[in-house]
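Q: what sequence does this backbone want?
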């Protein structure tokens, strides 16, 4: 009887996987191609790879801010869908457009005005093992080019997130699949100068990414146009940008903490990268390798987290509170168990993966170590992620803000810097300690989920 509380039947997992698998496939394709990108750029040298890695950390902050803004409105999209309210869904789409355009404008300004200071945060003249000036040059060249692709990225995410939140997960997956294949092809062509094209190195990698983003944007828009009779909530959505005051206020109050959460969480992750970069450019390259690998390894629990938001959000919108609690408990269990198996596999192959890269031996050694440590903590991050999406699905976005971004900014980041500056510890000691701190988040998440503070219908 006890096990039945935590494990569902065949139909349960069939329903879950129908939502999760397309998201997993899309994330897998995206992250696998990112790994191929990483390998291609890594073949150019440590400075090139470090320069691209630094810029990707900066763009990562913008991307997560966009995801946060869309997720905030997306909570309402999922519940309006559960309530069968197409007008409500239209309002959330309009809200997404407005806030995303604002973020786009701010990002363009910041990246153009503060380009060099932002990059220099990751570079240290005391690093004798690499050419700091050359790394800066590659980073600036990559950033100037990659900025041309953030607008189509925003548009594609607005459409894709709305489709996923209303149960259509296959189309965004297909669009993502086409985009990453495009990215992979043009990376090979433009980085190395194949098929008669010039050899552009890191700039070629940025151009390839931009092309893939325009392709993804076009594919998803064409799909929506062709299926407009099915997705009736898109009909007339852009005839005006009117949103009822109450809906606008509700989304802002509940959703803005998610935007700030994703922004500060991604900023915290970037600051952790800055803290790790104090140990040298070899560590930057090694951390880039491990991050790419772990993004691939973490796909299962990240996709299940997104699925929790969709499945639980729909049940909460339909006032099925007991069913939502039972479903959530089983989903969290599934996520953690799956992550344990993945963690074991990643740990066993951690020494082999860095050998694929043309970087320094020190970078390879760091990468293998980082991958080992991260693989051990995959189940910890899986539980924290699942509880985060659970609490968020019920509109408790301020709680998730405190639990996620405030936690990393006020605990993980200060600890990483303090262990270096105050205690002069090496990266071999600092990195595992920073990872282990997230156990505290598991305890907090477990407590909040059990207290059922998230069982709310926010669109009544």
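A:
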């Amino acid at each position: 009887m006890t096990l039945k509380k935590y494990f569902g039947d065949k139909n349960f997992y069939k329903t879950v996987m129908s939502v999760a698998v397309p998201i997993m496939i899309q994330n897998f394709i995206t992250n696998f191609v990112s790994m191929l990108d990483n390998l291609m750029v890594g073949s150019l040298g440590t400075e090139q790879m470090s320069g691209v890695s630094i810029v990707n950390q900066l763009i990562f902050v913008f991307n997560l801010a966009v995801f946060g803004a869309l997720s905030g409105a997306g909570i309402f999209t999922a519940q309006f869908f559960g309530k069968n309210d197409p007008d409500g869904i239209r309002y959330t789409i309009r809200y997404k457009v407005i806030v995303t355009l604002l973020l786009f404008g701010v990002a363009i300004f910041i990246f153009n005005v503060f380009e060099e200071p932002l990059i220099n945060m990751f570079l240290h003249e005391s690093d004798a093992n690499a050419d700091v000036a050359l790394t800066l040059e590659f980073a600036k060249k990559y950033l100037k080019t990659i900025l041309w692709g953030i607008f189509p990225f925003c548009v594609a995410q607005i459409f894709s997130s709305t489709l996923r939140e209303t149960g259509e997960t296959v189309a965004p997956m297909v669009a993502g699949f086409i985009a990453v294949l495009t990215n992979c092809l043009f990376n090979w062509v433009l980085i190395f100068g194949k098929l008669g094209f010039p050899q552009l190195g890191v700039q070629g990698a940025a151009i390839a990414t931009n092309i893939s983003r325009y392709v993804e944007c076009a594919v998803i828009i064409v799909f929506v146009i062709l299926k407009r009779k099915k997705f009736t909530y898109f009909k007339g959505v852009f005839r005006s940008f009117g949103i009822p005051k109450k809906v606008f206020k509700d989304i802002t109050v509940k959703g803005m903490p998610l935007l700030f959460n994703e922004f500060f969480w991604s900023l915290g992750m970037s600051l952790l990268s800055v803290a790790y970069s104090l140990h040298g450019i070899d560590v930057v390259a090694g951390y880039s390798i491990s991050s790419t690998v772990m993004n691939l390894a973490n796909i299962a629990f990240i996709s299940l987290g997104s699925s929790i938001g969709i499945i639980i959000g729909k049940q909460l919108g339909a006032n099925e509170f007991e069913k939502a609690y039972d479903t959530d408990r089983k989903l969290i269990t599934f996520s953690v168990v799956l992550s344990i198996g993945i963690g074991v596999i990643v740990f066993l192959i951690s020494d082999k993966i860095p050998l694929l890269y043309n970087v320094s031996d020190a970078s390879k050694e760091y990468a293998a170590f980082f991958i080992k440590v991260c693989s051990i903590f995959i189940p910890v991050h899986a539980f924290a992620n699942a509880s985060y999406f659970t609490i968020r699905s019920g509109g408790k976005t301020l709680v998730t803000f405190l639990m996620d971004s405030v936690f990393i900014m006020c605990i993980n980041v200060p600890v990483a810097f303090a262990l270096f500056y105050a205690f002069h510890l090496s990266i071999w000691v600092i990195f595992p300690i920073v990872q282990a701190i997230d156990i505290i988040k598991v305890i907090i998440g477990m407590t909040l989920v059990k207290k059922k503070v998230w069982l709310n219908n926010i669109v009544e």
